[in-house]
Design a protein that fits this description.
Oligomer: single chain
Membrane topology: Multi-pass membrane protein
Shape: globular
Keywords: Amino-acid transport, Cell membrane, Membrane, Transmembrane, Transmembrane helix, Transport
Subcellular location: Cell membrane
Pfam family, one: Branch_AA_trans
Structural class: mainly alpha
Largest sheet: none
CATH architecture: Up-down Bundle
Helix content: over 70%
Family: Belongs to the branched chain amino acid transporter family.
């Protein structure tokens, strides 16, 4: 069996961490910590289950099934599987996540320093960088893993360590009566459980480009890669949730998610902290946007049998994402909630069942469970508007 290089595992694991650790991953844990108060570990655990555990399991399940496209289509049928795949890819790779990454970067990395750059101008610059980085499909995973992620991790740990050494305040009772549910919804909002469709394709392609062609070797490598990414994600999420929990008696509860992390950083590190946060946000959102753009382009090239080339979809993707970015962060988050609440349950159920593909041969089981998940998703979506 081919030997797996430790260096490849670390670089690809760092890249997967960075692709997961985007806009929502940074802004939702502190807000969850604030509303959870002294029950923040409960909210954090539910968040981690959806955001880290199910996402890593999803990546493995997709590779186990031979790739995200075939895995879903073989389980629930070609037409419903293709529809679910397309909806997920459009949400994670075009309509919601990429615009949100750019809008978050602007609000947290640019707006605090100057009002001379408009969101429109910034979105053009942001997505131009994404274009330059992703237009050559063989490069972007190494660029993320080798160069961008180490800077992101170092800056984030500086902020977390500052909050642990010198806590903002005492942890108060929870502001919410639904801490566990809040954790699950925050996990939905990061959209990482859905991003496994695209990221699964990226991971497989990257392993193949590095010479790992045997399926058993790919599965073993994916386990190691997910462990690297998962440990980093859990460490950083736990730190951010703790910062939010310590801020509930000091910082206003009226701030939105992005404003809260800005306020926390200023309280801990002053003006220097604002600069560090700007670096964290910029790199976190940029790496995610790069990963999603590449994954989406891979997906549409594959399902079109090469009729839509990778480079063509990169251009289309960036133009649409840059346009939607100018709706602003709050509007994008509000748009995402009903969509994600509806499609996450059927997808999550299917992904979990795919782990037992060798034991569950009857496709009717996958179809029925996915349909039940969809019903529950629709129910909770409707309930939120009643």
């Amino acid at each position: 069996m081919q030997k797996i290089k430790t260096r490849d595992v670390i670089v690809i694991g760092f890249a997967l961490f960075s692709m997961f650790f985007g806009a929502g991953n940074l802004i939702f844990p502190p807000h969850l910590g604030m509303t959870s108060g002294d029950e923040w570990l409960t909210g954090f655990s539910c968040f981690i289950f959806v955001e880290v555990f199910l996402s890593c399991v999803g990546i493995y399940a997709m590779v186990l099934g031979g790739g995200s496209i075939t895995a879903l289509e073989d389980a629930i049928g070609k037409i419903p599987g293709r529809i679910l795949n397309i909806i997920i890819i459009l949400c994670t790779g075009v309509l919601i996540a990429p615009p949100r990454t750019a809008a978050t970067t602007f609000e947290m990395s640019i707006a605090p320093f100057t009002d001379k750059i408009s969101l429109l101008a910034f979105s053009i610059i942001f997505f131009a960088i994404v274009f330059i980085t992703t237009i050559r499909p063989t490069r972007f995973v190494d660029i993320i893993g080798k160069y961008l992620t180490p800077i992101l991790v170092i800056c984030t740990f500086i902020l977390i360590i500052a909050g642990i050494v010198n806590p903002i305040g005492e942890i108060a009772p929870p502001l919410s009566s639904t801490v566990a549910q809040d954790g699950v919804i925050a996990g939905y909002q990061t959209m990482d459980i859905l991003a496994v469709v695209g990221f699964g394709i990226v991971m497989l392609n990257t392993l193949r480009l590095k010479g790992y062609t045997d399926h058993k070797v790919q599965l073993k490598a994916i386990i190691y890669i997910c462990i690297v990414a998962g440990l980093l994600l859990c460490s950083i999420y736990g730190g951010l949730a703790y910062l939010g929990a310590t801020s509930s008696q000091v910082i206003s509860h009226d701030l939105n998610q992005a404003q809260l992390i800005v306020a926390i950083t200023r309280h801990l590190l002053g003006s220097t902290g604002t600069l560090i946060l700007g670096i964290i946000v910029g790199f976190a959102c940029l790496t995610t946007a790069i990963g999603l753009a590449g994954a989406t382009a891979y997906f549409f090239e594959k399902i079109s049998n090469g009729k839509i080339k990778y480079q063509t979809w990169i251009v289309i993707n960036i133009l649409i994402s840059a346009s939607l970015c100018n709706l602003g962060l709050t509007s994008i988050i509000n748009l995402a909630v009903p969509i994600l609440t509806t499609i996450c349950p059927p997808f999550m159920v299917t992904v979990i069942l795919l782990l037992f593909r060798n034991h569950i041969k009857n496709n009717a089981i996958y179809k029925v469970c996915a349909f039940i998940g969809l019903i529950f998703g629709l129910y909770y979506t409707i309930q939120s508007y009643i």
